[in-house]
Design goal:
3 helices; about 85% helix; mainly alpha
Length: about 60
Amino acid sequence: MKALGLGLVVGGWMVAVGGLVASDAMMVRLVAALAGLATSLAGITALNSAHIETAVWKTRGH
């Protein structure tokens, strides 16, 4: 799950930057940036849920 989250974050960044390089049209850049942002946020959510599952405070048994 952590690898998936990291892949989504990096992939989203690549989509956003790729949109800047691929086109000069403002709308294409906007759509690519929003798609990259959404992908990165999905990756951050996946990383957060994977972290919460294996959090230190859950393994101590207090």
